[in-house]
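## Example record

The block below lists the input lines for one assembly entry, exactly as stored, with component labels intact.
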Amino acid sequence: MSVVPAAMWGSEPRPHLRALDLSAWRVPVLGVLLLLGACKEVPGPRYVTSGADAQHGKALIEQTACGACHQIGGIAWPRGRLGPSLVNFNDIGLIAGALPNTPENLAHFIRNAPEAKPGSTMPPMPVTDAEARDIAAYLYSLNDGGEDK
Amino acid sequence: MFDAVWGWPPPVLDPAGPYAEDVTLLAWVLMGMALVVTAIIIAALWAAIKGPPWIKEKLGGERAVWIGGIAFPGVVLTALLIWGLTLTASLTQPITGKEMRVRVTGEMWWFRVQYLDEAGEVVMNDANELHLPVGVPVVLELRSADVIHSFWIPHLSGKKDMVPGRTNLLRIEASESGRFGGVCAEYCGGPHALMGFIAVAHEQDEWQRWLAARLQRQQADVPLPQPRTTPLPAVYTDVDLPRDSALRGGTDWDATQGRALFMASGCSACHRVAGTEANGLAGPDLTHVGARLSLGAGILPNHRGTLVGWIGDSQSIKPGNRMPSYDRLSGDQLNQIAAWLEQQI
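Predicted C-alpha coordinates for the full assembly:
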Protein backbone atom coordinates (compact mmCIF):
# COMPACT_ATOMS: atom_id res chain seq x y z
CA MET A 1 0.00 0.00 0.00
CA SER A 2 2.94 2.30 0.42
CA VAL A 3 4.75 1.38 -2.76
CA VAL A 4 5.02 5.06 -3.63
CA PRO A 5 7.39 6.85 -1.28
CA ALA A 6 5.57 9.44 0.81
CA ALA A 7 7.88 12.20 -0.48
CA MET A 8 6.38 11.81 -3.97
CA TRP A 9 2.86 12.34 -2.75
CA GLY A 10 3.38 16.03 -2.32
CA SER A 11 1.90 17.92 0.59
CA GLU A 12 -1.58 16.55 0.06
CA PRO A 13 -2.62 13.04 -1.12
CA ARG A 14 -3.96 13.17 -4.61
CA PRO A 15 -7.62 12.21 -4.97
CA HIS A 16 -7.06 8.86 -6.72
CA LEU A 17 -4.82 7.74 -3.85
CA ARG A 18 -7.50 8.20 -1.27
CA ALA A 19 -8.54 4.59 -1.75
CA LEU A 20 -5.36 3.65 0.01
CA ASP A 21 -6.71 5.04 3.24
CA LEU A 22 -6.14 2.14 5.67
CA SER A 23 -9.45 2.52 7.42
CA ALA A 24 -11.23 1.31 4.26
CA TRP A 25 -9.06 -1.87 4.19
CA ARG A 26 -9.54 -2.91 7.78
CA VAL A 27 -12.35 -5.36 7.17
CA PRO A 28 -10.87 -7.28 4.17
CA VAL A 29 -7.39 -7.43 5.82
CA LEU A 30 -8.90 -8.84 8.97
CA GLY A 31 -10.84 -11.35 6.91
CA VAL A 32 -7.73 -12.57 5.09
CA LEU A 33 -5.84 -12.89 8.38
CA LEU A 34 -8.68 -14.91 9.87
CA LEU A 35 -8.72 -17.18 6.80
CA LEU A 36 -4.94 -17.70 6.98
CA GLY A 37 -5.27 -18.47 10.67
CA ALA A 38 -7.59 -21.33 9.79
CA CYS A 39 -4.90 -23.03 7.69
CA LYS A 40 -3.07 -25.95 9.34
CA GLU A 41 0.64 -26.42 9.12
CA VAL A 42 1.76 -28.80 6.36
CA PRO A 43 1.59 -32.19 8.04
CA GLY A 44 4.87 -33.99 8.68
CA PRO A 45 5.25 -37.78 8.52
CA ARG A 46 2.04 -39.27 9.73
CA TYR A 47 3.64 -41.71 12.10
CA VAL A 48 6.62 -41.17 14.29
CA THR A 49 8.64 -44.35 14.17
CA SER A 50 10.97 -43.73 17.05
CA GLY A 51 14.34 -45.42 16.99
CA ALA A 52 13.99 -46.48 13.34
CA ASP A 53 16.36 -45.33 10.62
CA ALA A 54 14.52 -44.46 7.40
CA GLN A 55 17.69 -44.15 5.31
CA HIS A 56 18.84 -47.59 6.45
CA GLY A 57 15.35 -48.76 5.55
CA LYS A 58 15.82 -47.45 2.02
CA ALA A 59 19.13 -49.31 1.68
CA LEU A 60 17.41 -52.48 2.90
CA ILE A 61 14.61 -52.02 0.37
CA GLU A 62 17.20 -51.84 -2.41
CA GLN A 63 19.17 -54.80 -1.08
CA THR A 64 16.10 -56.99 -0.64
CA ALA A 65 14.69 -55.82 -3.99
CA CYS A 66 11.21 -55.06 -2.63
CA GLY A 67 10.88 -53.27 -5.96
CA ALA A 68 10.56 -56.65 -7.70
CA CYS A 69 6.85 -56.44 -6.80
CA HIS A 70 6.26 -52.84 -5.64
CA GLN A 71 6.72 -49.37 -7.04
CA ILE A 72 8.29 -47.39 -4.22
CA GLY A 73 9.07 -43.68 -4.19
CA GLY A 74 12.78 -43.00 -4.34
CA ILE A 75 13.57 -46.46 -5.71
CA ALA A 76 14.43 -46.07 -9.40
CA TRP A 77 14.60 -49.79 -10.25
CA PRO A 78 12.96 -52.24 -10.20
CA ARG A 79 9.40 -50.90 -10.22
CA GLY A 80 7.42 -54.11 -10.17
CA ARG A 81 3.69 -54.19 -10.73
CA LEU A 82 2.82 -57.60 -9.28
CA GLY A 83 2.08 -56.10 -5.86
CA PRO A 84 0.39 -52.80 -5.00
CA SER A 85 2.24 -49.54 -5.57
CA LEU A 86 3.67 -48.03 -2.40
CA VAL A 87 4.09 -44.58 -3.93
CA ASN A 88 2.71 -41.91 -1.58
CA PHE A 89 2.50 -44.53 1.14
CA ASN A 90 2.06 -41.84 3.79
CA ASP A 91 -1.53 -41.39 2.66
CA ILE A 92 -2.78 -44.98 2.62
CA GLY A 93 -5.51 -46.23 4.93
CA LEU A 94 -5.30 -49.79 6.15
CA ILE A 95 -2.18 -51.87 5.61
CA ALA A 96 -2.85 -54.35 2.81
CA GLY A 97 -6.47 -53.26 3.09
CA ALA A 98 -6.86 -55.20 6.31
CA LEU A 99 -4.62 -54.23 9.23
CA PRO A 100 -4.85 -51.11 11.41
CA ASN A 101 -2.22 -48.70 10.14
CA THR A 102 0.35 -48.68 12.92
CA PRO A 103 4.14 -48.91 12.66
CA GLU A 104 4.07 -52.19 14.60
CA ASN A 105 1.59 -53.77 12.20
CA LEU A 106 3.50 -52.51 9.18
CA ALA A 107 6.81 -53.92 10.45
CA HIS A 108 5.11 -57.22 11.22
CA PHE A 109 3.54 -57.35 7.77
CA ILE A 110 6.84 -56.55 6.03
CA ARG A 111 8.63 -59.29 7.92
CA ASN A 112 6.04 -62.02 7.80
CA ALA A 113 3.00 -61.05 5.77
CA PRO A 114 1.21 -64.43 5.81
CA GLU A 115 1.34 -64.40 9.61
CA ALA A 116 0.16 -60.78 9.89
CA LYS A 117 -2.59 -61.23 7.31
CA PRO A 118 -3.42 -64.88 6.58
CA GLY A 119 -3.81 -65.47 2.88
CA SER A 120 -1.46 -62.69 1.81
CA THR A 121 0.39 -63.30 -1.44
CA MET A 122 3.46 -61.54 -0.09
CA PRO A 123 5.89 -64.10 1.32
CA PRO A 124 7.99 -63.54 4.45
CA MET A 125 10.98 -61.31 3.80
CA PRO A 126 14.57 -62.05 4.79
CA VAL A 127 14.85 -59.15 7.26
CA THR A 128 15.07 -58.92 11.04
CA ASP A 129 12.52 -57.16 13.27
CA ALA A 130 14.72 -54.08 13.58
CA GLU A 131 15.26 -54.00 9.83
CA ALA A 132 11.52 -54.28 9.20
CA ARG A 133 10.97 -51.25 11.47
CA ASP A 134 13.57 -49.29 9.48
CA ILE A 135 11.79 -50.20 6.24
CA ALA A 136 8.46 -49.13 7.79
CA ALA A 137 10.02 -45.79 8.77
CA TYR A 138 11.11 -45.22 5.18
CA LEU A 139 7.67 -46.11 3.79
CA TYR A 140 5.98 -43.71 6.22
CA SER A 141 8.36 -40.96 5.12
CA LEU A 142 7.08 -41.22 1.53
CA ASN A 143 5.01 -38.18 0.80
CA ASP A 144 3.84 -37.19 -2.71
CA GLY A 145 5.56 -40.15 -4.25
CA GLY A 146 8.94 -39.76 -2.59
CA GLU A 147 11.98 -38.31 -4.28
CA ASP A 148 11.24 -39.15 -7.88
CA LYS A 149 7.71 -38.74 -9.04
CA MET B 1 22.32 -56.42 -5.59
CA PHE B 2 25.05 -54.95 -7.72
CA ASP B 3 25.99 -52.54 -4.96
CA ALA B 4 26.69 -55.49 -2.70
CA VAL B 5 29.05 -57.07 -5.22
CA TRP B 6 30.52 -53.92 -6.73
CA GLY B 7 31.81 -51.66 -3.98
CA TRP B 8 34.83 -49.43 -3.83
CA PRO B 9 37.46 -49.85 -5.23
CA PRO B 10 35.78 -50.35 -8.59
CA PRO B 11 36.21 -53.93 -9.82
CA VAL B 12 38.58 -52.90 -12.62
CA LEU B 13 41.05 -51.64 -10.02
CA ASP B 14 40.53 -54.53 -7.62
CA PRO B 15 42.05 -57.62 -9.26
CA ALA B 16 41.45 -61.04 -7.70
CA GLY B 17 43.45 -63.17 -10.12
CA PRO B 18 46.80 -63.18 -11.95
CA TYR B 19 45.44 -62.09 -15.34
CA ALA B 20 43.49 -59.19 -13.90
CA GLU B 21 46.51 -58.24 -11.76
CA ASP B 22 48.72 -57.81 -14.82
CA VAL B 23 46.16 -55.64 -16.54
CA THR B 24 45.59 -53.52 -13.43
CA LEU B 25 49.34 -53.03 -12.86
CA LEU B 26 49.76 -51.96 -16.47
CA ALA B 27 46.86 -49.52 -16.11
CA TRP B 28 48.33 -47.96 -12.95
CA VAL B 29 51.79 -47.57 -14.53
CA LEU B 30 50.32 -45.97 -17.64
CA MET B 31 48.23 -43.59 -15.55
CA GLY B 32 51.29 -42.76 -13.44
CA MET B 33 53.40 -42.04 -16.54
CA ALA B 34 50.65 -39.84 -17.94
CA LEU B 35 50.64 -37.83 -14.70
CA VAL B 36 54.45 -37.43 -14.73
CA VAL B 37 54.50 -36.27 -18.36
CA THR B 38 51.61 -33.85 -17.74
CA ALA B 39 53.48 -32.43 -14.73
CA ILE B 40 56.66 -31.95 -16.82
CA ILE B 41 54.70 -30.16 -19.56
CA ILE B 42 52.95 -27.85 -17.08
CA ALA B 43 56.26 -27.04 -15.38
CA ALA B 44 57.93 -26.29 -18.74
CA LEU B 45 54.98 -24.12 -19.80
CA TRP B 46 55.17 -22.19 -16.55
CA ALA B 47 58.92 -21.70 -16.93
CA ALA B 48 58.52 -20.57 -20.54
CA ILE B 49 56.02 -17.88 -19.53
CA LYS B 50 57.20 -16.73 -16.11
CA GLY B 51 60.76 -18.06 -15.86
CA PRO B 52 64.08 -16.14 -16.16
CA PRO B 53 65.32 -15.30 -19.68
CA TRP B 54 68.04 -18.02 -19.83
CA ILE B 55 65.39 -20.73 -19.25
CA LYS B 56 63.10 -19.23 -21.87
CA GLU B 57 66.00 -19.28 -24.31
CA LYS B 58 66.77 -22.95 -23.59
CA LEU B 59 63.15 -24.04 -23.86
CA GLY B 60 62.79 -22.27 -27.16
CA GLY B 61 66.00 -23.76 -28.60
CA GLU B 62 66.37 -26.53 -31.14
CA ARG B 63 68.00 -28.81 -28.56
CA ALA B 64 64.91 -28.74 -26.37
CA VAL B 65 62.83 -29.97 -29.29
CA TRP B 66 65.25 -32.81 -30.03
CA ILE B 67 65.41 -33.95 -26.41
CA GLY B 68 61.89 -33.23 -25.13
CA GLY B 69 60.00 -33.73 -28.37
CA ILE B 70 61.71 -36.73 -29.95
CA ALA B 71 64.24 -38.53 -27.73
CA PHE B 72 62.23 -38.53 -24.47
CA PRO B 73 58.89 -39.80 -25.88
CA GLY B 74 60.71 -42.29 -28.11
CA VAL B 75 62.62 -43.84 -25.24
CA VAL B 76 59.73 -43.77 -22.74
CA LEU B 77 57.09 -45.14 -25.12
CA THR B 78 59.39 -47.88 -26.46
CA ALA B 79 60.30 -48.94 -22.91
CA LEU B 80 56.63 -48.98 -21.89
CA LEU B 81 55.67 -51.01 -24.94
CA ILE B 82 58.33 -53.64 -24.34
CA TRP B 83 57.54 -53.84 -20.63
CA GLY B 84 53.78 -53.92 -21.25
CA LEU B 85 54.01 -56.71 -23.82
CA THR B 86 56.26 -58.76 -21.52
CA LEU B 87 53.94 -58.23 -18.56
CA THR B 88 50.81 -59.27 -20.42
CA ALA B 89 52.39 -62.19 -22.30
CA SER B 90 50.52 -64.55 -19.95
CA LEU B 91 47.21 -63.33 -21.40
CA THR B 92 48.05 -64.78 -24.80
CA GLN B 93 49.73 -68.00 -23.69
CA PRO B 94 48.60 -70.87 -25.87
CA ILE B 95 45.87 -72.99 -24.33
CA THR B 96 47.11 -76.53 -23.69
CA GLY B 97 43.71 -78.19 -23.75
CA LYS B 98 44.26 -79.71 -20.31
CA GLU B 99 42.65 -76.86 -18.41
CA MET B 100 39.22 -77.07 -16.85
CA ARG B 101 36.74 -75.91 -19.47
CA VAL B 102 33.39 -74.17 -19.21
CA ARG B 103 31.26 -73.12 -22.14
CA VAL B 104 29.50 -69.81 -21.61
CA THR B 105 26.95 -68.82 -24.23
CA GLY B 106 25.53 -65.33 -24.42
CA GLU B 107 21.77 -65.31 -24.97
CA MET B 108 19.35 -62.39 -25.06
CA TRP B 109 19.62 -61.50 -22.09
CA TRP B 110 21.31 -64.09 -19.88
CA PHE B 111 24.30 -66.43 -19.83
CA ARG B 112 24.07 -70.19 -20.43
CA VAL B 113 26.80 -71.95 -18.47
CA GLN B 114 27.86 -75.51 -19.33
CA TYR B 115 30.67 -77.37 -17.57
CA LEU B 116 32.60 -79.64 -19.93
CA ASP B 117 34.54 -82.84 -19.30
CA GLU B 118 37.93 -83.64 -20.87
CA ALA B 119 36.26 -84.85 -24.06
CA GLY B 120 34.33 -81.61 -24.37
CA GLU B 121 30.97 -83.19 -23.45
CA VAL B 122 28.56 -81.20 -21.32
CA VAL B 123 28.38 -82.70 -17.83
CA MET B 124 26.47 -79.99 -16.03
CA ASN B 125 24.10 -77.18 -16.99
CA ASP B 126 23.62 -73.94 -15.14
CA ALA B 127 22.95 -70.28 -15.87
CA ASN B 128 24.11 -66.83 -14.86
CA GLU B 129 26.58 -68.19 -12.35
CA LEU B 130 30.09 -69.50 -12.87
CA HIS B 131 31.76 -71.56 -10.15
CA LEU B 132 35.49 -72.16 -10.28
CA PRO B 133 38.25 -73.40 -7.99
CA VAL B 134 40.83 -70.98 -6.61
CA GLY B 135 44.33 -71.07 -8.10
CA VAL B 136 43.47 -73.07 -11.22
CA PRO B 137 43.26 -71.51 -14.67
CA VAL B 138 39.87 -72.07 -16.28
CA VAL B 139 39.36 -71.79 -20.02
CA LEU B 140 36.02 -70.34 -21.04
CA GLU B 141 34.60 -71.18 -24.46
CA LEU B 142 32.67 -68.03 -25.23
CA ARG B 143 29.85 -68.35 -27.74
CA SER B 144 26.72 -66.50 -28.68
CA ALA B 145 23.29 -67.84 -29.55
CA ASP B 146 22.00 -64.67 -31.20
CA VAL B 147 23.79 -61.32 -31.31
CA ILE B 148 27.21 -60.13 -30.19
CA HIS B 149 27.63 -60.06 -26.42
CA SER B 150 30.77 -59.44 -24.42
CA PHE B 151 31.83 -61.38 -21.37
CA TRP B 152 33.47 -59.43 -18.56
CA ILE B 153 34.40 -60.22 -14.98
CA PRO B 154 36.50 -57.15 -14.14
CA HIS B 155 37.92 -58.77 -10.98
CA LEU B 156 39.28 -61.75 -12.89
CA SER B 157 40.13 -60.74 -16.45
CA GLY B 158 39.68 -58.43 -19.36
CA LYS B 159 36.57 -58.64 -21.50
CA LYS B 160 36.10 -60.74 -24.59
CA ASP B 161 33.34 -60.67 -27.20
CA MET B 162 30.90 -63.51 -27.71
CA VAL B 163 30.40 -63.63 -31.45
CA PRO B 164 27.74 -65.72 -33.23
CA GLY B 165 29.30 -68.62 -35.13
CA ARG B 166 32.62 -68.40 -33.31
CA THR B 167 34.14 -69.84 -30.16
CA ASN B 168 36.42 -67.35 -28.43
CA LEU B 169 38.66 -68.69 -25.70
CA LEU B 170 39.29 -66.70 -22.54
CA ARG B 171 41.46 -67.90 -19.68
CA ILE B 172 40.54 -66.71 -16.20
CA GLU B 173 41.89 -67.54 -12.77
CA ALA B 174 40.93 -66.48 -9.27
CA SER B 175 43.63 -66.21 -6.64
CA GLU B 176 41.23 -65.86 -3.73
CA SER B 177 37.81 -67.24 -2.90
CA GLY B 178 34.82 -64.92 -3.15
CA ARG B 179 32.02 -63.67 -5.35
CA PHE B 180 32.78 -61.51 -8.34
CA GLY B 181 30.20 -59.64 -10.36
CA GLY B 182 30.19 -59.83 -14.15
CA VAL B 183 28.25 -58.15 -16.93
CA CYS B 184 27.57 -58.24 -20.62
CA ALA B 185 29.81 -55.45 -21.92
CA GLU B 186 28.46 -55.12 -25.46
CA TYR B 187 25.08 -53.57 -26.15
CA CYS B 188 22.85 -56.47 -27.19
CA GLY B 189 19.39 -54.93 -27.30
CA GLY B 190 16.54 -54.12 -24.87
CA PRO B 191 17.44 -55.15 -21.34
CA HIS B 192 21.19 -55.38 -22.05
CA ALA B 193 21.91 -53.32 -18.93
CA LEU B 194 20.15 -56.00 -16.87
CA MET B 195 22.29 -58.88 -18.15
CA GLY B 196 24.73 -59.84 -15.44
CA PHE B 197 26.09 -62.87 -13.69
CA ILE B 198 28.17 -63.83 -10.68
CA ALA B 199 31.42 -65.77 -10.58
CA VAL B 200 32.04 -67.73 -7.38
CA ALA B 201 35.56 -68.91 -6.55
CA HIS B 202 35.80 -71.81 -4.08
CA GLU B 203 38.80 -73.05 -2.10
CA GLN B 204 39.91 -76.46 -3.35
CA ASP B 205 38.24 -78.70 -0.74
CA GLU B 206 35.00 -76.73 -0.91
CA TRP B 207 35.18 -76.90 -4.69
CA GLN B 208 35.47 -80.72 -4.64
CA ARG B 209 32.42 -80.98 -2.39
CA TRP B 210 30.45 -78.54 -4.51
CA LEU B 211 31.33 -80.35 -7.73
CA ALA B 212 30.50 -83.80 -6.36
CA ALA B 213 27.10 -82.62 -5.08
CA ARG B 214 26.27 -80.91 -8.37
CA LEU B 215 27.27 -83.86 -10.53
CA GLN B 216 25.25 -86.21 -8.37
CA ARG B 217 22.21 -83.95 -8.63
CA GLN B 218 22.51 -83.67 -12.41
CA GLN B 219 22.37 -87.42 -12.79
CA ALA B 220 19.71 -88.02 -10.13
CA ASP B 221 16.33 -89.47 -10.93
CA VAL B 222 13.15 -87.48 -10.57
CA PRO B 223 13.59 -85.76 -7.22
CA LEU B 224 10.62 -85.91 -4.91
CA PRO B 225 9.80 -82.62 -3.24
CA GLN B 226 11.57 -82.45 0.09
CA PRO B 227 11.23 -80.00 2.93
CA ARG B 228 14.23 -77.72 2.94
CA THR B 229 17.03 -79.18 5.06
CA THR B 230 20.08 -77.41 3.68
CA PRO B 231 21.30 -74.17 5.23
CA LEU B 232 19.50 -71.11 3.99
CA PRO B 233 21.38 -68.65 1.79
CA ALA B 234 23.60 -66.16 3.57
CA VAL B 235 21.04 -63.43 3.18
CA TYR B 236 18.84 -65.12 5.78
CA THR B 237 21.58 -65.61 8.37
CA ASP B 238 20.62 -62.79 10.69
CA VAL B 239 16.95 -63.57 10.64
CA ASP B 240 15.55 -65.09 13.79
CA LEU B 241 12.53 -66.77 12.28
CA PRO B 242 12.71 -70.51 12.94
CA ARG B 243 14.99 -72.01 10.32
CA ASP B 244 12.58 -74.82 9.57
CA SER B 245 9.55 -72.56 9.48
CA ALA B 246 6.99 -73.88 7.06
CA LEU B 247 6.60 -70.32 5.81
CA ARG B 248 10.25 -70.10 4.86
CA GLY B 249 11.05 -73.34 3.15
CA GLY B 250 7.55 -74.11 1.95
CA THR B 251 5.73 -77.21 3.01
CA ASP B 252 5.81 -80.54 1.22
CA TRP B 253 2.30 -79.89 0.08
CA ASP B 254 3.20 -76.47 -1.34
CA ALA B 255 6.15 -77.87 -3.23
CA THR B 256 4.17 -80.78 -4.62
CA GLN B 257 1.50 -78.41 -5.85
CA GLY B 258 4.21 -76.11 -7.18
CA ARG B 259 5.80 -78.87 -9.18
CA ALA B 260 2.48 -79.82 -10.76
CA LEU B 261 1.78 -76.17 -11.55
CA PHE B 262 5.26 -75.72 -13.04
CA MET B 263 4.60 -78.52 -15.50
CA ALA B 264 0.97 -77.54 -16.18
CA SER B 265 1.64 -73.84 -16.73
CA GLY B 266 4.09 -74.44 -19.52
CA CYS B 267 7.25 -73.49 -17.61
CA SER B 268 8.79 -76.77 -18.71
CA ALA B 269 8.59 -75.73 -22.36
CA CYS B 270 11.51 -73.37 -21.83
CA HIS B 271 13.14 -74.53 -18.61
CA ARG B 272 14.94 -77.75 -17.73
CA VAL B 273 15.02 -79.28 -14.28
CA ALA B 274 17.27 -82.35 -14.40
CA GLY B 275 15.53 -85.61 -13.62
CA THR B 276 12.03 -84.30 -14.25
CA GLU B 277 9.89 -84.04 -17.35
CA ALA B 278 10.83 -80.35 -17.57
CA ASN B 279 13.29 -80.40 -20.43
CA GLY B 280 13.01 -77.05 -22.22
CA LEU B 281 16.21 -75.57 -23.55
CA ALA B 282 15.17 -72.04 -24.56
CA GLY B 283 15.51 -70.51 -21.10
CA PRO B 284 17.94 -70.86 -18.20
CA ASP B 285 18.40 -74.33 -16.69
CA LEU B 286 16.63 -74.38 -13.31
CA THR B 287 18.14 -77.58 -11.90
CA HIS B 288 20.03 -75.54 -9.28
CA VAL B 289 17.91 -72.40 -9.19
CA GLY B 290 17.29 -72.69 -5.44
CA ALA B 291 21.04 -72.43 -4.78
CA ARG B 292 21.60 -69.55 -7.14
CA LEU B 293 22.79 -66.24 -5.74
CA SER B 294 20.70 -64.14 -8.09
CA LEU B 295 17.58 -64.18 -10.24
CA GLY B 296 16.84 -62.66 -13.63
CA ALA B 297 20.52 -62.92 -14.73
CA GLY B 298 22.44 -61.37 -11.86
CA ILE B 299 19.97 -58.59 -11.12
CA LEU B 300 17.82 -59.63 -8.13
CA PRO B 301 18.68 -61.36 -4.86
CA ASN B 302 17.25 -64.86 -4.72
CA HIS B 303 14.52 -65.28 -2.12
CA ARG B 304 10.85 -66.22 -2.04
CA GLY B 305 9.71 -62.66 -2.64
CA THR B 306 11.82 -62.07 -5.73
CA LEU B 307 10.96 -65.54 -7.08
CA VAL B 308 7.26 -64.77 -6.81
CA GLY B 309 7.79 -61.30 -8.27
CA TRP B 310 9.85 -62.58 -11.18
CA ILE B 311 7.50 -65.42 -12.14
CA GLY B 312 4.39 -63.28 -11.70
CA ASP B 313 5.54 -60.20 -13.57
CA SER B 314 9.08 -60.41 -14.91
CA GLN B 315 8.20 -57.89 -17.61
CA SER B 316 7.88 -55.08 -15.07
CA ILE B 317 11.31 -55.94 -13.63
CA LYS B 318 13.24 -56.60 -16.85
CA PRO B 319 11.10 -55.16 -19.67
CA GLY B 320 11.49 -57.02 -22.94
CA ASN B 321 12.96 -60.21 -21.51
CA ARG B 322 11.70 -63.36 -23.17
CA MET B 323 9.77 -64.79 -20.24
CA PRO B 324 6.12 -63.77 -20.22
CA SER B 325 4.58 -62.46 -17.00
CA TYR B 326 2.60 -65.28 -15.38
CA ASP B 327 0.04 -62.93 -13.89
CA ARG B 328 -2.70 -65.41 -14.71
CA LEU B 329 -1.56 -67.47 -11.71
CA SER B 330 -2.87 -66.62 -8.25
CA GLY B 331 -0.68 -65.49 -5.38
CA ASP B 332 -0.98 -68.91 -3.76
CA GLN B 333 0.01 -70.64 -6.98
CA LEU B 334 3.03 -68.36 -7.44
CA ASN B 335 4.11 -69.14 -3.90
CA GLN B 336 3.72 -72.87 -4.52
CA ILE B 337 5.88 -72.78 -7.65
CA ALA B 338 8.45 -70.71 -5.77
CA ALA B 339 8.41 -73.25 -2.92
CA TRP B 340 9.24 -76.04 -5.36
CA LEU B 341 11.94 -74.03 -7.15
CA GLU B 342 13.57 -73.15 -3.81
CA GLN B 343 14.15 -76.86 -3.30
CA GLN B 344 16.06 -77.21 -6.58
CA ILE B 345 19.58 -76.85 -5.26
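Confidence is low (pLDDT under 50) at residues 227-249 of chain B. Chain B touches chain A at residues 1, 3-4, 235-236, 238-241, 245, 247-248, 299-301, 303-306, 308-310, 312-313, 316-318, 327, 330-332, 334-335, 338 (CB under 8 Å).
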